[in-house]
Design goal:
464 residues, twelve-stranded mixed β-sheet, nine-stranded parallel β-sheet, 44 strands, binds uridine-diphosphate-N-acetylglucosamine, binds calcium ion
């Protein structure tokens, strides 16, 4: 038996998002909003963690995988009914049960920690989180008796004017004594007209039997925003972005303008790195130390080494080793791998290719499905013609080769080590190591013998 288990309520459709995607899968800060709740439960050491799913349950299950258990709520008959669906998975599993929503991504683990700590200190039947706010946000009101203790939660829809005036609101987050929860949960009365079971009625049940209810009160409204509309989504995004950015700045990363720097939750950044405005770091991106990123840059699911420079570029599923630099206006696509110190200048594109250490491609080049050795010079406008209309083919370029400007490398083709290709060549056959070729199609021009060997009509002297 563990100290704490968690139930995350996520069966709702989220009608007001007007979306085919279930509400809790809408991304905030780069991850599905329910992932924030799961991470919070994990941070508190909760086990097991049960996600109550309903609307598009299979999609939610697919997205979140086996890091949590799932309870299925066929009809959304209220928050109390939702928790009841998790009972078979949780009864006898833990001393306390934390209840969270899957649509409250800005709630912090620190606040939950305080809630659980208060619960463990006082050992009431339940401990709830309330917030003091001028804006009621449609939340239930926390009603306190003459002694100051909580006696009920009343939903806004059924509240009298006096109750509506109460500024202490129920956040919907609770820590229950497990034995008490499972014993009394079935006693929640049914609320007409929709026949719902309100978890908030647990407060009334506790008070009626003389059990205690403790309250942790917060003033920070930004932590308890439930997401119902795309407006809320943008607000939560802003809150999480600010938090993520503050964390990286305190870790030693310079954000020149945090308001226009968009770093998703799972991104890692080394110290002394500088990030210029309008930069998006997404997915599982890892950036080393002393890198300079941006402005106007998007990096997704990529590994950027120490001291790299990425200027006004797009980098997706790519790797840049230490000291490599690209831009302005470079594009690294899936499988691009730039070795140490590679320089890739304006308007370059690399896909599914490795470029060895020290290789330079300064201007307007496309390298796809290629292996390029070290210290190769790729002249302006060089293109690997990797697609014949049906299939992709590979290009291999040896160490220290010199590829003249405007070269077309018609794949499959291999250029040997130290070979030189004159400007404007269309290379349709392999080029031996050290050879000099140029022309359309490219032929050898280094020695007469080599020319003869390079095949066919080349061997015949031509009349002018
Ligand atoms: C609930 C509280 C209210 C509180 C507010 C805070 C009740 C009766 N009311 O109201 O006091 O101020 O949260 O946000 O609990 N869910 C299910 N199955 C259901 C119903 C809901 O999984 O049958 C999930 C929803 O997907 C959502 C969460 O529970 O994630 C809260 O449900 P919601 O309908 O938004 O509750 P509120 O009416 O806002
Ligand atoms: Ca709500």
């Amino acid at each position: 038996m563990s100290e704490l288990a968690a139930v995350i309520l996520a069966a709702g459709q989220g009608t007001r998002l007007k979306s085919d995607l279930p509400k809790v899968l809408h991304p905030v800060g780069g991850i599905p909003m329910v992932a924030w709740s799961i991470q919070n439960a994990q941070a508190l050491g909760a086990a097991p963690i049960v996600l109550v799913v309903g609307y598009k349950a299979e999609a939610v299950r697919q997205a979140m995988g086996d890091q949590v258990l799932y309870a299925y709520q066929e009809k959304q008959l209220g928050t109390g009914h939702a928790v009841l669906q998790a009972r078979p998975l949780l009864e006898g599993q833990a001393r306390d049960v934390l209840v969270l929503y899957g649509d409250m991504p800005t709630l912090t683990a620190e606040t939950l920690q305080r809630l659980v700590a208060l619960h463990r200190e006082k050992r009431p039947a339940m401990t709830m989180l309330s917030v003091l706010s001028e804006d009621s946000m449609g939340f239930g009101r926390v009603v306190r008796g003459a002694d100051g203790r909580v006696c009920a939660i009343i939903e806004e829809a059924v509240a009298s004017p006096e109750i509506l005036a109460i500024r202490e609101l129920n956040c919907g987050v609770y820590c229950f004594d497990a034995d008490w929860l499972w014993r009394r949960l079935p006693d929640i009365p049914i609320t007409p007209p929709k026949g719902e079971y309100y978890l908030t009625d647990m407060v009334g049940l506790a008070v009626a039997e003389g059990a205690r209810v403790e309250v942790l009160t917060t003033h920070d409204v930004s932590e308890v925003q439930g997401i119902n509309t795309r407006l809320h989504l943008a607000q939560a995004e802003r809150i999480l972005r600010r938090r993520i950015n503050e964390r990286w700045m305190l870790e030693g990363v310079t954000l020149v303008d945090p308001d226009t720097t968009y770093i998703e939750a799972a991104v890692q950044i080394g110290r002394e790195t500088v990030i210029y405005p309008n930069t998006f770091l997404q997915g599982r991106t890892m950036i080393g130390e002393r890198a300079v990123i941006g402005p106007n840059t998007l990096i997704r699911d990529s590994r950027i080494g120490n001291g790299c420079r990425v200027l006004m570029s797009v980098v997706e599923e790519a790797v840049m080793e230490e000291g490599a630099n690209i831009g302005p206006f470079g594009h690294l696509r899936k499988g691009a791998h730039l070795g140490e110190g590679v320089h890739m200048g304006n308007f370059g594109e690399v896909k599914d290719s490795y470029l060895g250490p020290g290789t330079k491609m300064g201007h307007f080049s496309y390298i796809g499905d290629s292996y390029v050795g070290r210290d190769v010079n790729i002249g302006a406008g060089t293109v690997t013609c990797n697609y014949d209309g049906q299939r992709k083919h590979r290009t291999v370029i040896g160490d220290r080769a010199f590829i003249g400007s405007g070269t077309m490398l018609v794949a499959p083709v291999t250029v040997g080590e130290g070979a030189r290709i004159g400007a404007g060549a269309v290379v349709t056959r392999d080029v031996p190591a050290g050879a000099l070729v140029y022309g359309v199609p490219a032929r050898r021009h280094d020695t007469p013998k080599a020319q003869a060997e390079s095949g066919g009509e080349d061997a015949q002297p031509k009349s002018p």
